[in-house]
Amino acid sequence: MRLGKWKLVSRWRRGSRRWELYDMEENRTGTNDRAAKEPRKTAELVNLYDA
Question: Which of 27, 19, 26, 25 is closest to 44 using CA atoms?
């Protein structure tokens, strides 16, 4: 899911979903997961995804 410069990615591992958040302006290759550093933005996008 994309919203502005943010990209939210869902990863399934061992039966549970893990969210990854990428700042596509800062890191266009999507290799620097920002979910732990941006918990509010991650939660905002997860809520939009689940709506």
Answer: 19
